[in-house]
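During the reporting period the student researcher (J.K.) took over the structure-prediction task from the postdoctoral fellow and processed the backlog of single-chain submissions. One of the processed entries is reproduced below for the supervisory committee.
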Amino acid sequence: MGNVFAYPLEDRLYLNLTNQCPNRCVFCIRNNEKGVGYDLWLDREPSAEEVLAAAGDVSAYREVVFCGYGEPLIRWEVVVAVAGALKARYGVKIRVNTNGLAEAFLKQRILPRLQGLVDTISISLNAADADTYDRLCHSCLGPEAYPALLSFIRESKVYIPRVVVSVVEIPGFDPEPARKLAEELGVELRIRSYLQE
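J.K. obtained the following structure tokens:
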């Protein structure tokens, strides 16, 4: 039980680095008992070597995705080390699922370090305005969270070939404001289904 550092879903391998997250989103998988079929809560954070050992030979996977219960870019050094090793050995496509707040949370630049390693970054936009974001995501960064997120999305386009923003289709969700914002930001939009019991 616990300490699942790598888990397959269909033709992708997901890497789980941390429980740490600056947000407490109302729709988070942590709040859904179904989860994804794995116990992803970590008793401890893995080293890059442990993640690589858990991943093994990834040549059969379409993509390797950094995600899990926490915000993977809080441990950007491990992301960089593991992504670099997997790229060098297998040439595999790398994606990072992020809430876009690690730079603001850690108060340091991370995106330039991902250049050449990460093919796709999927950023949880979650709302088309700051008030809605605050209501849904309860970030420890408070009012600075949403502007920091938008800045991160814009900056991502400089360093990463494919930038996707996602929103969760919660009850009463209107996709149009998010579509418009994604268009203004010049990024792809993905609407994710809301997991319910």
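The committee noted the following: The mean pLDDT is 88.
J.K. will present the remaining backlog at the next meeting.
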